[in-house]
Amino acid sequence: MEEGGLGIRRIEDWNKAATGVHFWDIAIKKDSLWVKWIHGRFIKSKTIWEIAPRALSTVIWKRIIASREWIKTKVKYIIYKGTEVNICSDPWLEGECLNYHFGGRLALLFSLPKDTKLNWLNTNGVWVKPRRWLNELDDLWETINQIEIGGHQPDELVWGPSKFGILSLSETWKEVHCRTIKKSWTNWVWQHPQIPKHLFTLWLACLNKLSSLARLFQKNLVAPPTSVLCAAYPESNHHLFFQCSFSTQVWGSVLSKVGIQRPQISSVTSEIDWLELTFKVEVLKTIFHVLIATSRWHIWLECNRKIFKRKTTLKDAFVSLILRDSRIKINQCALKAVISSELDRMRRGLDIQLLELSLQSQEVRWETPQRDWTKANTDGYLSDDRAGYGLLLRDHLGNLIMAEAAHTRRNSINFLELLAIEQSMKLATYLGTQNLWVENDSKVAIHWLTQ
Ligand SMILES: [Zn+2]
């Protein structure tokens, strides 16, 4: 998502990442029945680092073994006593096994049994050169001497790219998939509630992928186009939304309707920066986001209407259309009002409804539920950088049965309130509760559940 896409993963890369996890489980001898079976059935006295698949082995087994080539470049052995690492066939030497260099010659030369461990070369944390060592292997000995050893723990295989040395599916995914540059606007595009077709057009506009005449021109399918809306300048996505006299006038009118005066802005990133600097309250950001997406959608629609239907809309009617669609969406969002002069101006200009906050204090008492009932008090929360929910389950005496609080992905506050209620129901079911009384402070959530 952060690279500007829709979060859809290439199945080929995903398979490669998942196979890598299987390989890792086998390499670290994870305590699972499947890993034990693999070792007993296929690997036996060898290691996963040296075993070769047979011609008739299954495809998945061949794939798991093939992961070795890229995994061995990312792993590292931390050697303490040297009692876990196979001297010839584990890749402890800068990601390589001794067998890769010498075939089986080293084992033959020193008459080493197959399962000889690395402590054959070290004693009490010091490398000790074996007798009968060959002069031609002195370079190898130099390399070995530089590897730090010592300590009393078992040797460890660690995943180099991860901070904690542990490999997981997300870690292998990071390694195998082809990354492109992060886009600064991705979170901003997706984080607000929006009419889906408006959101989709906004996303394509940010990606510069709207199917405009400019894109057809890039593919040599049409002559160099001039702007459909102003007929004065060469067309491009950037011109359409930030330079075209028609769109800048329309966007200026929309902004002045909601009481915003500011100089013209020339790119999506500057628009986001301005928005983040100017509005500190989430509800203002959401309203502005709806206005941007709705305007972009209507400008794009107007462009197409002009090309395909040869019709144009008068500017005032066009601005009214944008304001009408924005109003419908904002009213659907059931946003909570806050004390802000900017918000007051927006409310007047757009004629939107927000959930009012009562400023009068009111005493509220917590009441115990009836006998044989459990009461759940739930709440969702959303701040500028965090989101989550909390809940308490109590019995008819007011005794706490269970409590839970968790951070979640950012979403609308109503979603988080509903999530808190759902979680309280799940926990109550898990506890075998027959009668549950749920309390929540969100009128919208209660309305959605009870209507
Ligand atoms: Zn233009």
Automatic annotation (TrEMBL):
<dbReference type="InterPro" id="IPR026960">
    <property type="entry name" value="RVT-Znf"/>
</dbReference>
<feature type="domain" description="Reverse transcriptase zinc-binding">
    <location>
        <begin position="168"/>
        <end position="251"/>
    </location>
</feature>
<dbReference type="GO" id="GO:0003676">
    <property type="term" value="F:nucleic acid binding"/>
</dbReference>
<dbReference type="InterPro" id="IPR012337">
    <property type="entry name" value="RNaseH-like_sf"/>
</dbReference>
<dbReference type="GO" id="GO:0004523">
    <property type="term" value="F:RNA-DNA hybrid ribonuclease activity"/>
</dbReference>
<protein>
    <recommendedName>
        <fullName>Reverse transcriptase zinc-binding domain-containing protein</fullName>
    </recommendedName>
</protein>
<dbReference type="Pfam" id="PF13456">
    <property type="entry name" value="RVT_3"/>
</dbReference>
<dbReference type="Pfam" id="PF13966">
    <property type="entry name" value="zf-RVT"/>
</dbReference>
<dbReference type="InterPro" id="IPR002156">
    <property type="entry name" value="RNaseH_domain"/>
</dbReference>
<dbReference type="InterPro" id="IPR053151">
    <property type="entry name" value="RNase_H-like"/>
</dbReference>
<dbReference type="InterPro" id="IPR036397">
    <property type="entry name" value="RNaseH_sf"/>
</dbReference>
<feature type="domain" description="RNase H type-1">
    <location>
        <begin position="377"/>
        <end position="451"/>
    </location>
</feature>
